[in-house]
Amino acid sequence: MPLRAAAAEQGKGQPRLEHELALEMLVSATELGRRLHRLLRTPYDRACALCAEAIAVAELAARLDLTVGTTRALVGELIDDQLVEAHPPIGGYPPQARRDALDRVFSRLHDL
Predict the structure, then answer these.
(1) Which of 20, 28, 58, 110 has minimal CB crowding within 10 Å?
(2) CB atoms within 10 A of CB 35
(3) CA distance 52 to 1
(4) Which top-rank group of organisms is this from (predicted)?
């Protein structure tokens, strides 16, 4: 498995992700990501740890104190390395699930 995320500070590799991640796109760590996040370099380790529960790209950017563009690239690399996975934007879920997810996002944003 190529851990391009671990070598990214040295400019190795470009994410193969073909689409742009929407701000509201949810990402979560895979089993592999949960096991290996401590082996990654900053900020990949923190991003993977924050994705232990599904988190929106925008919230991840805020928590990492990175620009949205940088966060999208970072997440793209983590997806390519199968350390996190993307889920449909919140609009693709039933109303109650959307409300629950939005409540979590707003609560976490308020905590920041």
Answers:
(1) 110
(2) 12
(3) 20
(4) Bacteria
